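Now read this:
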Amino acid sequence: MTAPQHDLDMPYAQLDLGVREESEFRLTADSRAVGVSGHCPRCQGTSTTEFPLGVVGSKGLPWRRDEPLSPAGRSAVVSAEVLYCECGFAHTGLQEGTFFVGCGAYWRLGPSSGNRA
């Protein structure tokens, strides 16, 4: 299967793409963070985001710091987050100082069809 072509001509626009299926992305975890990687649903550029686990100075963390999260744990972390296109390409119209360098799309992850009751 070939990777989709990154649309470098797509202009920057802040667009909410709603909820995407988790199966469209690859979730990874270690004892420090959960990573989400895949292709932006809008521009098709490769986008990778890492969500650190825990809050500095917090006590009683809900997971063991020496073990990676289970698949269900990874899903729980990312379902509460908004992902942004982080393809790294300054699409035409990108404002100077924009925090996420990409096409401006953002989305959330939900369960894949048929994976959960």
Q: What stands out?
A: The chain has a mean pLDDT of 84. Helices lie at 71-79. The chain is about 10% helix and 30% strand.
